[in-house]
């Protein structure tokens, strides 16, 4: 019988590929955009992870979502360091969320308030993506805009408290496989995972409209 972690990965593969194939990410990884586009993307992450990690604090003792709340994953401190480097010490006064970002963050918050298993779907799509494909973005940013290796500007992508990402992801998959709930609930989680990718892709589409290829 297929494990739930495998089901989650395979069922959302199409949505995952859509995100990877977005014009904005393609231009960013193709080194066709300026550092301002990267900084603007980092701003959006700050709003998304604000919702995600506020939810984590709320759900730390929850029997469904609680096991996924791992402080070594938390990204907000790193994001704030990155934004100070990219936008300057007054960055909090200038950052803004795109409408698509607000919709994404609100959905995460709604799941955290009312549906812990749905929150897990968002937790999975974000953090496991950061541990994997996020490293490609970090490498590109370092090489394209002269950012220090694993330093200011790209700290979001550096998981210093996870020395063995592969082992961590295996443990995470075991948690997914043990997620409480019947078959119907698991199908709802799969659907929420697809929704999470769609919300993320909407942010990329908005960023692509804000940064048409001019650099």
From TrEMBL:
Family annotation (InterPro entries): Haem_Oase (IPR002051), Haem_Oase-like (IPR016053), Haem_Oase-like_multi-hlx (IPR016084)
Keywords from the named record: Heme, Iron, Metal-binding
A Pfam entry, by short name: Heme_oxygenase
Domain of life: Bacteria
Protein name: Heme oxygenase (Biliverdin-producing)
Classification of source organism: Bacteria, Bacillati, Actinomycetota, Actinomycetes, Kitasatosporales
